[in-house]
Amino acid sequence: MRFAGSGKRGVPQLQKKNNSKKTAKTKNSADTLFSLSLRQKQIVDLVRGEGFVAIEKMARRFAVTPQTIRRDIRNLADAGMLLRHHGGAGMPSSSVENYAYQARKVLCLQEKQRIARLLARHIPDKASMFINIGTTNEEVAKELVHKNGLRVITNNLNVAAILSSNKSFEVIVAGGVVRSRDHGITGHATIDFIKQFKVDFGIIGISGIDTDGMLLDFDYREVRVAQAIIDNSRRVFLAADYTKFGRNAMVRLAHIRRVDTLFTDFTPPDEINEVLSFENVRIMVADDLPG
Prior knowledge:
The protein is an alpha/beta fold. It has two domains: 19-94, Winged helix-like DNA-binding domain superfamily/Winged helix DNA-binding domain (Arc Repressor Mutant, subunit A, Orthogonal Bundle); 104-285, 3-Layer(aba) Sandwich (Rossmann fold). Helices cover 38% and strands 21% of the residues. It is built from eleven helices and 16 strands. The chain has helices at 19-33, 38-50, 55-62, 66-78, 101-106, 109-120, 135-144, 157-163, 188-194, 220-231, 270-278; strands at 2-4, 52-54, 83-85, 88-90, 128-131, 151-154, 170-173, 177-178, 185-186, 199-204, 208-209, 214-217, 233-239, 251-255, 261-264, 282-285. α6 crosses α7.
């Protein structure tokens, strides 16, 4: 476990974009489109359809070595057609649409598990908490299930199912509209329910962290619930893997100054790290945490 970011430093200024590089990259992407092999075209189609695909799965599907797939992914990423992730590839990020739930469950799974183990170590027995929607939070729930006497309020049916296996827990599920895609619960009834409580910890996930420290997500209904969780938690823990740094999404949740501790798997980029330092947000990195 490593600590990063401390002291009061100025918030960084945005650098001017190099338009010539952007133009060159766009031209390179267009040129590459016409020179792709059949396998590379099929890789792009596969990732577009599933959101994220693991290297091993692609190697089996195309009957080639993982090293060959990695080279294909590197070339496609250089052309701006895919995003490279640890263990696989995804589509370039959109500010209006998140990856599919099943894709997010396997995307950076090991990183999410390390984050979850680290975060769970900072939750004492017999604590009260909110846990909201997200695949990282579902991994957190799997670690918290070994605690004793927790009181958990959640708008995530997957989290509720995991934690209800511990007989010492009291798990309260918020009312509202259930989303079929991920079993999250949102709506006015959910917000009203959350507002009835004041808990020790609010454990939240996020889709993106902008370079100015703004927390971003895709669904304004989900964001409204997360805002209520922040407002009614004594301490806020944010669980986010490295792919969330600088990622775009269109709905503003809150500035990261509302967070007490960020749990992640990799030290944030300098711009974000300086914002965290300036706002005195504690950073806990799980990159060297044993499994």
